[in-house]
Design brief:
25 strands, 44% helix, single chain
Length: 836
């Protein structure tokens, strides 16, 4: 059977598409994913080696279809094919079809036994259904027509009423096509209610274009020797509602405790986000923007207003995206990435521009009209999930409209914890909620699969949606209880309801506290050695997540976020405020601040380089850059020194390759300290200075460098590339970039030995620290500290608790004698003693 490969910049996106496609065919088709890159800081990208491995894993003589999202995905796929044997290359097809719709259409066709060219045709036609619904094409059959019928075979027909709740949306349509494809007879189907033409029953695209909803009547014909069997099988599908539960959309699942349905004040809704909340209600009503259309004499000026509002909206959404990435994770934050794409949609922008120019109307009216058209087109889609994306369209549309109208952004500030009651919440509204103040959400519209519900779940805010509109008439301060797991809410609940919910809430909170308590325990090996587990962070929000995750300090504060995406360098006061805020959250835990590590591959827009660098990783970056820009360097050092009062702050210098660089940096630090002394400004005179060990020369002279500084921190990400002379972004050599290669491990060992001989501590802040497979080796080599991204802290602590130093030292000694990273991994997997 044909194999399918999904290539995307986003791993989460690709896995989601694969899951959706696999559901359509119950796993009958082999689907592989090649998505994202192994870089926690910037995981978006494509890797030809991944694509090659994915193709190989699903390869079939019937063919492999490769679907790609955009940009480098195409280049990676083309390059991956070059790695295949020539005979296999001829059976791999790159397809330009849309990723989501194309994947669904392709797997359904493949499951039906179609050949590779038919599968490609189905994938390429996958936008037909959506285009038809949006009115982009007027005749669904303009590109795909039914096959010629066999006049010698009998034709049978049946008429069926569609009863399942959402009609023939994606999954039922896929079942219909898969069933039709099992028979030799030609199956044609027509939506009598909408008076469509006949379409092929074995084409997912054509069946979807029929726009079949609940209550619609279909005419199905079958021509061939097994026509009767085919129609019987299809009739059974309809009779069984395609295996779907036909309960009303907002019926909640059963409550865990027995509660009388007729309880006073009880409201039923949609269970959207689990958890129990008991608090007074507060109403939230977004500001309504009233638009009046009027004639304008200067349409060009109106269009410029639209462009200016869009640019400001883009900045606002990017800020929400950055905040959401830290608070709810990249996968959920991608919701706002999609909103940015909406603002760049050329069709939408051209439509707004045309309305202004041709009708001489004001910017607000033109923009509102275009957004309304797009929102309406989404509402008419048959797929309920796609219908819900209208929330995002309205969200971003209202943002631009607010800016055009000159209205200030609506901010929800609660004085005390409450349950938020509203008609609906936009994704932007929800992402801005404070879970410590908004204890629950109760709305009269929305669904469990809306983006607002997804964000609420990620934030841990219980939510019940779609309740009766009577809730909007409650007075602020009215006591409400809600259970987001069962989809029920109670207005002024009776005492026995409160008791049941309080018990459930208490049990949930206890479980959460136990989980947090485990994460906050020290990481101690089975034989009593404590190892510090710190966090790598890149913002103020990161440090809050880190502390909540059990970080014992910050082993690496990347200060680049202060310098990038702006037109001038941050001032001393700006930096001071950020460093103090982070140190305050840490509450006297250690904070290691790495000085600016830009240049080369991370240029600053306000610094003139003067010439392009052929190899930026070997160029003007890190400490080299700072020593050539003393104004920037001294400003940062002053801010760090001033923030050090009353806190455990340390300075760390990046990309050190020579002793001379360390001494030069320390001399500048001394000058800044002298200036502060002269000005009577306090700082920690005993503040420690360390370096990043990420250049092979630093390892070679680690003994000399150890005499100059107070601590080392090994950066295995760069060290690995430099040791192996391999760029991890180059697919032809990326396989060499493995920090578990014995050559890299020996560098780590040499650095640790030099540090301990000199009596200084040594940590590791590269990706290797978060790889729990590597934990026994790192412990065995004698590291004092591991610093990882916040989400990796609990796992690393658990891994440490399962090990003993004696056992780890034996594993490390053996690992250093292996001849490849593969053999090191095999060694670890067979050597670690299971936990007692």
């Amino acid at each position: 059977m044909i194999g399918i490969v999904i290539v995307s910049h986003s791993k989460q996106l690709a896995l989601g598409v694969r899951e959706l496609a696999a559901q359509m065919v119950q796993g009958q088709v082999s689907i592989a994913v090649a998505a994202g890159i192994e870089d926690p800081e910037n995981p978006l990208g494509t890797d030809p080696i991944q694509v090659y491995e994915a193709i190989a894993s699903v390869f079939s003589d019937d063919g492999v279809l490769v679907l790609m999202d955009l940009g480098s995905a195409l280049l990676s796929a083309e390059m991956a094919i070059e790695f295949l044997p020539e005979a296999q290359q001829q059976k791999v097809y790159l397809c330009e079809a849309p990723l989501v719709e194309g994947a669904i259409a392709a797997v359904v066709a493949a499951a039906a036994g179609r050949d590779i060219h038919q599968v490609m045709a189905e994938a390429r036609g996958a936008l037909l259904a959506k285009a038809t619904q949006l009115g982009v094409v007027s005749r669904p059959l303009s590109t795909v027509t039914p096959a010629t019928t066999n006049v010698e075979s009998p034709t049978r027909e049946i008429r069926l009423i569609v009863s399942n709740r959402l009609g023939l949306h994606a999954r039922p349509a896929a079942q219909f096509v898969a069933t039709a494809a099992r028979f030799q007879s030609q199956i044609l189907v027509r939506n009598l209610t909408r008076n469509t033409e006949l379409v092929r029953g074995d084409s997912i695209n054509q069946v979807t274009t029929l726009g079949v909803r609940q209550g619609h009547e279909l005419l199905i014909t079958a021509t061939g020797f097994d026509a009767d069997e085919a129609l019987t099988a299809l009739q059974t599908l309809f009779a069984n509602n395609f295996g779907e539960d036909n309960v009303a959309l907002n019926s909640p699942p059963a409550f865990h405790h027995e509660v009388t349905p007729a309880t006073h004040g009880e409201l039923s809704g949609i269970a959207a986000s689990p958890g129990v909340a008991i608090a007074p209600v507060v109403h939230y009503q977004p500001t309504h923007i009233s638009i009046t259309e009027y004639h304008v004499d200067d349409p060009d000026a109106e269009w410029q207003r639209v462009q200016a509002a869009i640019n400001t909206a883009r900045q606002e959404i990017q800020a929400i995206f950055s905040q959401a990435s830290l608070q709810i994770g990249d996968a959920e934050a991608a919701i706002f990435d999609a909103q940015l794409l909406f603002l760049e949609d050329p069709v939408l922008l051209e439509a707004a521009h045309q309305r202004i120019l041709e009708n001489h109307i004001n910017a607000e009216a033109a923009w509102q009209a275009v957004v309304d058209e797009v929102a309406t087109s989404y509402r008419t889609l048959e797929d309920s999930y796609l219908q819900e994306r209208v929330d995002d369209v309205v969200d971003v549309g209202q943002r631009v409209l607010r800016l055009l109208a000159g209205n200030a952004a609506a901010n929800l500030h609660l004085e005390s914890p409450a349950i938020l009651v509203a008609t609906d919440l936009t994704p932007s509204d929800t992402a801005g909620l404070d879970p410590t103040k908004v204890l629950g959400i109760c709305t009269t519209s929305g669904s469990a699969t809306s983006h607002s519900a997804i964000i609420a779940r990620t934030l841990g805010i219980p939510a019940v949606l779609g309740v009766d509109a009577q809730v909007l008439h409650l007075a602020d301060g009215t006591l409400m209880a809600l259970d987001g797991e069962s989809g029920r809410a109670w207005v002024e609940p009776e005492s026995h309801i409160l008791d049941l919910l309080a018990a459930k809430q208490s049990a949930w909170q206890t479980a959460q506290q136990e989980a947090r308590a485990t994460a906050h325990q020290p990481a101690i090996t089975r034989d009593g050695r404590q190892v510090s587990v710190f966090a790598n962070i890149g913002s103020i929000n990161d440090v809050q997540v880190a502390v909540a995750s059990g970080a014992e300090g910050v082993g690496l504060l990347r200060t680049e976020f202060l310098y990038l995406d702006r037109t001038s360098a941050p001032t001393e006061e700006e930096q001071l405020a950020v460093y103090q805020a982070i140190a305050q959250v840490l509450d006297n835990r250690p904070l290691i601040i790495r000085t600016l590590d830009v240049g080369g591959d991370k240029p600053l827009p306000y610094i003139r380089v003067g010439f392009p660098e052929a190899n930026p990783f070997l160029g003007w970056r890190g400490i080299r850059f700072c020593l050539d820009h003393l104004d920037l360097f001294k400003t940062q050092l002053r801010a760090i020194l001033r923030a050090s009062v009353g806190h455990q702050i340390k300075i760390m210098l990046p990309m050190i390759a020579t002793v001379t660089e360390v001494r030069a940096a320390k001399a500048i630090l001394g000058e800044v300290q002298a200036e502060l002394n002269q000005a009577g400004i306090s700082f920690d005179v005993a503040m420690k200075v360390g370096i990043m060990v990420e250049v092979p020369s630093a390892v070679a002279i680690a003994d000399q460098l150890a005499a100059e500084v107070d601590f080392f921190s090994i950066g295995t990400n760069d060290l690995c590339q430099y040791v192996m002379a391999s760029d991890r972004t180059n697919p032809r050599v990326a396989n060499l970039v493995d920090a578990l290669h014995p050559a890299v491990l020996r560098m780590v060992q040499q650095t640790i030995q030099a540090a301990h001989t000199a009596g200084i501590s040594v940590g590791l802040c590269g990706e290797l620290a978060a790889d729990t497979l590597a934990t026994p080796i790192l412990l065995g080599l004698g590291l004092d500290e591991l610093s990882v991204n916040p989400q990796g802290i609990p796992g690393v602590k658990q891994a440490i608790a399962r090990l003993s130093i004696v056992e780890s030292e034996a594993i490390a000694a053996s690992a250093l004698q292996q001849d490849s990273a593969v053999h090191v991994r095999e060694l670890i997997s067979t050597s670690v003693t299971p936990p007692a």
